[in-house]
Amino acid sequence: GDSVTQMEGPVTLSEEAFLTINCTYTATGYPSLFWYVQYPGEGLQLLLKATKADDKGSNKGFEATYRKETTSFHLEKGSVQVSDSAVYFCALSESQGGSEKLVFGKGTKLTVNP
Amino acid sequence: EAGVVQSPRYKIIEKKQPVAFWCNPISGHNTLYWYLQNLGQGPELLIRYENEEAVDDSQLPKDRFSAERLKGVDSTLKIQPAELGDSAVYLCASSMGQGGWHNEQFFGPGTRLTVL
Asked: Is the pLDDT of residue A64 over 90?
């Protein structure tokens, strides 16, 4: 079945450092790909998404490009802030919009120190 | 606009006791999801509703778990009897419905269940 593998955490960075969180997937079809973020004490929030190969999702300085050839959707940010400290989940959905179930990775906890 | 509302936020019960979680989706959202999130893991779908109909309940352990979505709005997830391994966060999400390119799932804050 479908699955998502993301890099083990936790990740600790200093403010303004470059962030990469790796995510690879296995799917039978052509899934839509998502990054969700969970801030402490809050629910999951959609950070960005991409629905077809070579699409780049971006939001709040974060970016991820849908790479079909490497089945990857790595999350990047050029300069992290303390407020980016959260748990990040990579996910896929076989439906174009994500209306069917989301399959999540295990999550990567990011801590950014001042 | 109000988001997805869940209650209670926290619940502590003894094993073998029943427990119920409630979810109120975003107004106008036809699709409702219940996910289970174990500690250190990503959420896993338990059940998905399209209006009143459960269209995907393949991952719901039907021997002890049940869910309902009367009138296609609010939903309740029940566990009876609870076991130690049920300790987790139960997440509810909603979306506008099938189809479309912007059918984002919106998540509630979750109910953290502890079974003693």
From this structure: yes
